[in-house]
Design a protein that fits this description.
By secondary structure, this protein is an alpha+beta fold. Helix content is 35%, strand content 36%.
Length: 131
């Protein structure tokens, strides 16, 4: 499975999975930006060291499933130019109980931000950022 894409993301696929799952709890995290450091933006642009990022995401998903008892994980990160109101990241998890689902989603988000080689390389500001 590929976790990184240049295609526009939609939560529809994840929502269909979430509605059909019988695991007890479903949690999702979506990143949709409108501001960068308090300044309105038109877009953000992301790059990644894709082979390593894909492997690391897979490893963290496996770790989260084992550690938190997750029954399913849906993970997508957009690369390239992501316009305002488009989804940059979707992390969705199913688990038997809500505490497992919240903890698993939080774990995956923190691992992504801390370790996975994906970078925000540019922001298209609508007005000059204040310093």
């Amino acid at each position: 499975m590929r976790y990184l894409t240049y295609e526009v993301l939609s939560a529809d696929e994840w929502h269909r999975e979430a509605m059909s799952e019988h695991s007890g709890a479903s949690v999702e995290f979506l990143v949709v930006r409108r501001l960068e450091h308090g300044t309105p933006i038109e877009y953000l642009e992301y790059e990644a060291y894709e082979p390593m990022a894909e492997r690391m995401i897979e490893q963290y998903i496996q770790q989260a499933q084992e550690q938190f008892g997750l029954s399913r994980v849906y993970f997508r990160h957009r690369l390239g130019k992501v316009r305002v109101n488009e989804i940059a990241v979707i992390i969705g998890v199913h688990a038997p109980h809500r505490d497992q689902a919240f903890a698993g989603c939080q774990f995956l988000l923190e691992a992504l931000k801390r370790d996975v080689p994906i970078w925000k390389v540019q922001a298209g500001y609508l007005e000059p950022p204040t310093t």
